[in-house]
Write a structure and sequence with these properties.
single chain; alpha/beta; Rossmann fold; seven-stranded mixed sheet; 8 helices; 7 strands; binds S-adenosylmethionine; Methyltransf_11; Methyltransferase domain-containing protein
Length: 243
């Protein structure tokens, strides 16, 4: 079971008629995982500041694509949703606590939020050079990528602290690390390695070493001894049921 399937399981999609939101949906991977298990009928609001949903998700009648900035109030009235997912976006938001407060507002009493994030500082790469891997991962978690206004490679471990200062009830805290052995273009490992490479860009000498490091990962993959994982953290929160 992968990251998105685990999130779908934690979302308790246990009855028909649920109104679900996936905040910062990206290509809609979590949406796909939820649609695979949610009893019909169901509706998933797929929210992101940019439109990058896979075609198959975009054209699914159960999905409503919404372009919105999560740094602004959410485009839902109070108590509109049964379930909400916020996966791998908190590090990019100006005020993650305000985002959590908005999630609380738009959930119905008894509604569930799965607040989840990868903790990038835990990135594990099997490579020919462990010391260089450490240097590059350290750099990766301390540099804001060009496409983002802000980032925090330690966000996974901060979710619980953020959650505890809200009015949500804490249902559970989960961590896992998925095993990835592929390193072909477009794979999860390759994408993270490209992020690591990009983080070295301002240092020509380190870029040279990082490029060789990526080649080393590809060699390991060809030999079958490549491994990548990162620890994900998911905090399951419930809006207290109305008295
Ligand atoms: C790392 S991707 C995660 C996508 C998806 N949740 C997943 O795990 O596959 C981060 C997403 O957050 C979106 N994003 C970043 N800042 C945002 C903001 N202020 N409002 C809405 N979406 C935002 C990006 O467009 C991107 O799709």
């Amino acid at each position: 079971m992968g990251r998105h399937e685990r999130i779908a399981e934690l979302a308790e999609l246990d009855r028909p008629g649920l109104e679900i939101a996936d905040f910062a949906t990206g290509m809609g991977r979590t949406v796909r995982a939820m649609l695979a298990v949610a009893p019909e009928p169901t509706r998933v609001h797929a929210i992101d500041s940019a439109s990058s949903l896979d075609d198959e998700i975009l054209h699914d009648a159960r999905v409503r694509s919404v372009i919105a900035d999560l740094d602004e109030p959410l485009p839902f009235p109070d108590s509109a949703l049964d379930r909400a997912i916020s996966l791998n976006v908190a590090e990019h938001l100006a005020d993650p606590a305000a985002h959590l407060a908005e999630c609380y507002r738009v959930l119905k009493p008894g509604g569930v939020l799965v607040f989840a994030h990868s903790d990038w500082d835990t990135a594990l790469f099997a490579s020919p050079d462990d010391v260089l891997t450490r240097t590059l991962v350290d750099r990766f978690v301390s540099v804001v990528p060009r496409w983002a206004e802000r980032a925090d490679g330690f966000m996974g471990r901060k979710l619980l602290g953020l959650a505890l200062s809200t009015e949500f009830e804490l249902d559970g805290v989960h961590t896992w690390a998925d095993c990835h052995r592929r390193f072909d273009k477009g794979s999860v490992s390759w994408k993270v390695a490209m992020g690591v490479l990009a983080a070295a860009k301002d240092d020509p000498e380190l870029t040279k070493r990082a490029t060789a490091w990526v080649e080393g990962l590809a060699t390991f993959a060809a030999e079958g001894r490549f491994l990548f994982s990162v620890t994900d953290v998911a905090v399951v929160l419930r809006k207290p049921a109305a008295q």
